[in-house]
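Researcher: Sequence recovery benchmark, item below. Answer with residues only.
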């Protein structure tokens, strides 16, 4: 069946609540301000009202409630809403959820999922446009999921709610809500921590995650049609765990790497991938690695200024042409 990214999320949550009475929904604004997407959650709210906790907006309190419920044996998904607001909950997410298993000597687990709408979504301004996966990726004990398609939105959310034994940060993106894909609920999921080759190629590897996957795919098509360049698109799917081997295998085949990342350029996911290639794959490279990331400035509210900063198809195309020596 073909479903959208938003439908995949809602379907995964609904099916998880049907399958396991321990699954709870904590929050008040799932799917953000997208009215059409929010309506997809109506079956969950109406059929499982006793397992939906609608609370005042206090990210610290919501996260703490989710961790407590998880430690007590439940499997909650906590709606943090905009990814920027997870900063309000860092004391719980980073210092409590991530450490509870280690600090209890393995006696306690906290299988809680923190759901965030992260990234530059158009007119969000500096306080609503953070892409926090690089920051959170530095925290041992957290799983960071960054689906780039409807298929992984469905499968990764369902895995987090039904199978994961560890705290998870699920980084969604509102600009992906309308993206569609064929999804079979009975099809085995690609294992968590394994990257997906979205497009096979031979000349250059474009490594992407979340919203940059669709832009990398569009860039790959243009590069093939207009320049005869064969691009392989690697969708990381998860930041923690990070699939280094698939990245290295792809670059071993193509000899060139462009990394598309919506984090800021310094200390971002692209920087980590570039470091991996420098340490483990330097001999594989025919050209220097190129990063396409957000400049190190606050995200402006102005759409015109915002457009200058985002990682778009045109910037990815330019980076590929550069590593191919055609710029």
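Model:
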């Amino acid at each position: 069946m073909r479903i959208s990214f938003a439908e995949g999320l809602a379907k995964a949550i609904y099916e998880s609540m049907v399958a396991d009475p321990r699954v709870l929904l904590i929050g008040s604004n799932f799917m953000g301000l997208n009215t059409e997407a929010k309506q997809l959650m109506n079956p969950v709210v109406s059929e499982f009202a006793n397992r939906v906790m609608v609370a005042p907006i206090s990210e610290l309190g919501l996260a703490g409630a989710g961790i407590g419920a998880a430690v007590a044996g439940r499997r909650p998904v906590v709606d943090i809403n905009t990814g920027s607001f997870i900063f309000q909950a860092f004391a719980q997410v980073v210092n409590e959820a991530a450490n509870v298993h280690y600090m209890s000597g393995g006696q306690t687990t906290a299988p809680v999922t923190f759901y965030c709408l992260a990234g530059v979504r158009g007119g969000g301004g500096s306080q609503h446009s953070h892409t926090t996966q690089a920051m959170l990726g530095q925290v041992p004990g957290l799983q960071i999921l960054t689906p780039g398609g409807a298929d992984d939105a469905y499968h990764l959310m369902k895995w987090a709610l039904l199978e994961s034994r560890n705290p998870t940060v699920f980084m969604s993106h509102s600009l992906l809500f309308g993206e569609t894909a064929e999804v079979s609920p009975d099809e085995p999921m690609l294992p968590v921590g394994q990257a997906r080759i979205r497009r096979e190629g031979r000349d250059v590897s474009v490594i992407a995650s979340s919203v940059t996957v669709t832009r990398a795919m569009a860039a790959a098509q243009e590069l093939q049609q207009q320049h005869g360049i064969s691009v392989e698109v690697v969708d990381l799917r998860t930041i923690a765990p990070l699939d280094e081997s698939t990245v290295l295998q792809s670059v071993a085949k193509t000899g060139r790497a462009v990394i598309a990342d919506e984090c800021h350029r310094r200390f971002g996911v692209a920087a980590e991938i570039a470091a991996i290639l420098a340490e483990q794959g330097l001999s594989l490279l025919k050209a220097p690695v190129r990063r396409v990331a957000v400049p190190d400035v606050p995200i402006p509210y102005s759409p015109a200024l915002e457009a200058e900063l985002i990682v778009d198809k045109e910037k990815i195309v330019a980076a590929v042409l550069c590593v191919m020596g055609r710029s």
